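Example 9 (inverse folding). The structure is encoded as follows.
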């Protein structure tokens, strides 16, 4: 009887699914909420493509969309952990603005002139980025200590930070715009030179496909090792094909967007290349800020699902009292979450200022609302304990798609804000319904 019971418990739930769709979803173990978001994103893209006169689903717009999403995507990975622990951070946009201004001053004034490195020194961008990261982590640590040890609600602390850090950004340069950024630093903002090109984009695609296959293989080995139900082989193959297909399609789109004609001609002149009669086609490839966002997403997904810290975060969000009774130092974990959030704001500040090639006082304005909205739309519950990095990244893409599509359609800025607000409320309502039905 014991052997029979062991065999039965090792049967995958898909074996009991009735219709083909249920069987597929059960066998592949795909998150239905995530699939629903993908479907919503597809509807948004097709709708904007139709109403914009065929401008949305073009390589140029999709490439720009990926770059525009990068900074919010970086910050939303940290916001997931903040919201999961039943906190909130309203200061991320202001931190981004302050850190961007500090990095800008470091590149244009402090390092080249006051410290004598000279303009164009190869260490300028490294030291500027390191300084920005230190400032971001320091701000996060300060806010985290006040929240965790002084027991001031996160809403109040970060609302105060929203005002304080925005004012501090102004005082750094007395309201002056700082430009231009270091040429190497600018690469983090994208553009023709801030992309990896045709060849390296396909290298990234091949590496990603190999990583997907290896991940599925070792995941299956782990299931077998602990006697967990194994997904059917066809389901594993379907996941591999789906993941590789999306990767290849994304790289194909990135490579289909060429450099602007003037820039390509200047490049040809500088390198002695003959320009063909129909023009020189040089692919942008994947933009560097997109690679940064992807890297941050992978690291944050690993931290949230594969580390002790990540388990502590979700335990705190599920039941803070039980987590504390279990021996988790919830105060120190809270401080670390806000320090991580500050570091991610610094990375986003580097991307934003590099893309604009300047640090302005308006940088990061309203970013906190877009980041929170992206996290909530991506399935992170404001009640705490529930959230995924992949869902949040998809939520960031949905938010930026809405904004990009409305710009292409020529909608006024106030109307864009109305639409974003409605979408946010709708997403929270759906989350409420989902949790109610689940319980």
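The amino acid assigned to each position is listed next.
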């Amino acid at each position: 009887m014991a052997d029979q019971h062991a065999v039965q418990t090792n049967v995958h739930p898909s074996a009991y699914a009735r219709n083909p769709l249920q069987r597929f979803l059960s066998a592949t173990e795909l998150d239905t909420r995530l699939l629903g978001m993908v479907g919503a994103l597809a509807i948004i893209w097709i709708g904007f493509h139709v109403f914009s006169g065929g401008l949305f689903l073009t390589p140029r717009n999709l490439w720009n969309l990926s770059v525009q999403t990068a900074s919010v995507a970086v910050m939303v990975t940290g916001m997931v952990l903040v919201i999961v622990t039943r906190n909130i951070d309203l200061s991320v946009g202001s931190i981004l603005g302050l850190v961007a201004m500090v990095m800008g001053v470091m590149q244009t004034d402090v390092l080249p002139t006051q410290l004598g490195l000279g303009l164009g020194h190869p260490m300028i961008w490294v030291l500027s980025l390191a300084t920005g990261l230190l400032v971001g982590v320091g701000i996060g640590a300060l806010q985290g200590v006040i929240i965790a040890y002084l027991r001031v609600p996160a809403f109040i602390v970060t609302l105060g930070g929203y005002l304080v850090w925005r004012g501090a950004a102004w005082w750094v340069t007395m309201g002056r715009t700082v430009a231009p950024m270091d040429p190497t630093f600018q690469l983090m903002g994208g553009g023709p030179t801030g992309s990896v090109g045709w060849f390296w984009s396909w290298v990234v695609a091949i590496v990603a496909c190999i990583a997907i296959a290896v991940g599925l293989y070792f995941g299956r080995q782990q299931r077998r090792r602990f006697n967990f139900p194994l997904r059917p082989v066809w389901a594993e193959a379907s996941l591999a094909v789906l993941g590789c297909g999306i990767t290849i399609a994304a790289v194909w789109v990135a490579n289909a967007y060429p450099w602007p004609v003037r820039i390509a001609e200047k490049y040809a002149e500088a390198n002695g290349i003959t320009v063909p009669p129909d023009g020189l086609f040089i692919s942008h490839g994947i933009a560097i800020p997109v690679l940064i966002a992807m890297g941050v997403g992978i690291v944050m997904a690993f931290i949230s699902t594969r580390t002790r810290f990540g388990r502590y975060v979700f335990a705190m969000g599920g039941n803070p009292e039980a987590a504390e009774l279990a021996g988790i130092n919830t105060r120190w974990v809270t401080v670390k979450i806000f320090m991580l959030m500050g570091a991610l704001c610094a990375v986003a500040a580097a991307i934003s200022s590099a893309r604009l090639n300047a640090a302005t006082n308006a940088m990061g304005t309203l970013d906190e609302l877009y980041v929170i909205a992206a996290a909530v739309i991506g399935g992170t519950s404001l009640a705490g304990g529930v959230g995924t990095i992949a869902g949040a990244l998809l939520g960031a893409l949905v938010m930026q798609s809405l904004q990009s599509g409305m710009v292409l359609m020529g909608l006024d800025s106030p109307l864009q804000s109305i639409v974003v607000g409605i979408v946010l409320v709708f997403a929270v309502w759906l989350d409420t319904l989902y949790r109610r039905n689940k319980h």
